[in-house]
UniProtKB/TrEMBL annotation:
SUPFAM superfamilies, per the entry: Cytochrome P450 (SSF48264)
Listed InterPro entries: Cyt_P450, Cyt_P450_E_grp-I, Cyt_P450_sf, Cytochrome_P450_fung
Protein name: Cytochrome P450
Any matching Pfam family: p450
Organism: Calocera cornea HHB12733
Length: 482
């Protein structure tokens, strides 16, 4: 019988060999010096990693290498390097790093974010595109506007827990888009909390050093009876699988009616066979879309409110444009073409404070030659979205919140920059770009427009009558989402 200590020792020896072999043969861009064997591991913070990587970019440029115990990670810190590698070479830079605990054990590679690039991902993206392409999303306009109105009413009722109120609004709209039906019922609220718990647990498992098996992959060979973490992860998968499949069955049964609409599951179920998608895959795809969409959208809306408090002139300008277009009636999604400045406010919010600062690392599926370097097959590639969105070559004075940077001389929204597939870099790049971005853009646009139409944004005062100014750098790290 192979003991645990034997496996750990063998893994450490393998790490040393990997370090020696990759160090002697690599032709990667230079980066910060580190220790023998460990490389830069001890220099990497467990929180706010994007800040450390941004600092290193000031010294080593927009293309540099970090060594984590022999694992080489190339960091991209500009629109140019990101566009060249993650967009124009997306055919060979769309792989995924292994997340053994979160991706393989807890989710069986059924979530987009962990799924290797291949046939399964392409099939699931095709069916997601059917339900969330730019034209399909028009069917969701009515209830997105209803939930924006509900958001305003909720803020009027209770301003003490804005973060939770914004998250509830994002959850309600996303839930209806996926599973059909009217606004969230008390029973639905409990299910939403369960999906939230799934998301928190999965994201927690991706944190550095959360599970030793991700540092020492050989530990995955341990039998379940000798690895309590593996037994727990497998049970968690089956419990979650049963829950997601239950949501799928409910979503398929929803019928269009006066108070209902047909959501993603109900509308795409007839196409499962055509796209060769199993019901299990569809169930996890819907669950994954909810997890990713709610966390990122609600955090973005929170930053929008912060920006309006810090830049009151922007809020007043936005309100002037809204008043000119809608008058006393509430805004609608059909008003968007007449409100380019509000579109620019959304784009600037996502640029100024992208909430998925590092995204999920890509992996090179073949050797890549770039700028005289060679990135070997298997190299991890991180696009530091924070650095890219604050690239002064594209965004002068990047720390300033300035929606006008997205408006051309004719008052229209500028076309995306040449080095970007989409100038909202927070949605990712290449063949890994967020498949639900059109729905998210619609939801956040109408929520932002409604809040600007309904409210003035004024900073609170403390007991001494002094303004309480939000700290623009008080970041709260939730793993993949900031």
């Amino acid at each position: 019988m192979v003991s645990t200590w034997y496996l750990v020792a063998a893994a450490l020896v393998g790490t040393v060999l990997l370090y020696v072999l990759t160090t002697s043969k690599s032709n990667l861009p230079p980066g910060p010096p580190g220790l023998p064997i460990l490389g830069n591991m001890l220099q990497l913070p467990s929180k706010l990693l994007f800040i450390k990587l941004d600092e290193w970019s000031k010294t080593y440029g927009d293309l540099y290498t970090v060594n984590v115990a022999g694992k080489k990670i190339v960091v991209l810190s500009s629109a140019k390097s990101s566009g060249d590698l993650l967009e124009r070479k997306s055919g060979i830079t769309s792989g995924r790093a292994r997340y053994i605990m979160a991706g393989e054990i807890m989710c069986r590679n059924l979530l987009y974010m962990f799924m290797p690039y291949g046939d399964q991902l392409r099939r699931l993206r095709r069916i997601t595109h059917e339900g969330f392409n730019i034209h399909a999303c028009e069917a969701y306009y009515p209830f997105q506007e209803q939930e924006a109105a509900n958001l305003v009413r909720s803020i009027l009722t209770d301003q003490d827990d804005l973060a939770n109120t914004l998250k509830h609004a994002a959850a309600a709209a996303t839930w209806r888009a996926l599973y059909s039906g009217p606004s969230l019922s008390a029973e639905d609220e409990e299910k939403v909390r369960r999906v939230d718990d799934v998301g928190e647990t999965v994201l927690g498992a991706t944190m550095p050093m959360a599970y030793l098996v991700d540092v020492i992959p050989l530990m995955n060979r341990l039998p379940t009876w000798a690895a309590g973490w593996k037994a727990w992860g497998e049970k968690w998968f089956w419990d979650t699988d049963e829950f997601f499949n239950g949501l799928l069955e409910e979503g398929k049964e929803q019928k269009k009616g006066v108070e209902h609409h047909v959501g993603f599951i109900a509308s795409t179920a007839p196409s499962f066979k055509k796209f060769e998608v199993t019901e299990q895959e569809a169930a996890w795809t819907a669950g994954g879309l909810f997890i990713a969409g709610v966390e990122t959208s609600s955090a973005t809306l929170h930053y929008f409110v912060q920006a309006m408090l810090l830049y009151p002139d922007v809020a007043r300008t936005a309100q002037k444009y809204i008043d000119e277009v809608v008058g006393n009636r509430p805004p609608m999604l059909e008003d968007r073409d007449k409100l380019p400045y509000i579109v620019a406010v959304l784009k600037e919010t996502m640029r100024w404070r992208p909430v998925a600062r590092l995204g999920v690392p890509h992996v090179a599926d073949a050797d890549i030659e770039y700028r005289g370097y060679v990135l070997p097959k298997g190299t991890q590639i991180i696009g530091n979205v924070w650095s890219i969105a604050h690239d002064e070559a594209f965004f002068p004075s990047p720390e300033t919140f300035d929606p006008s940077r997205f408006i051309d001389s004719a008052g229209r929204v500028k076309k995306p920059f040449p080095d970007y597939h989409d100038d909202i870099v927070a949605y990712g790049a290449g063949r890994r770009i967020c498949p639900g971005r059109h729905f998210a853009n619609n939801m956040m646009f109408i929520d932002i427009a409604y809040m600007l139409w309904a409210f003035d944004f004024i900073v609170a005062k403390d007991d001494n009558g002094k303004d309480i100014i939000p700290d623009r750098h008080a970041f709260e790290d939730h793993g993949l989402v900031m």
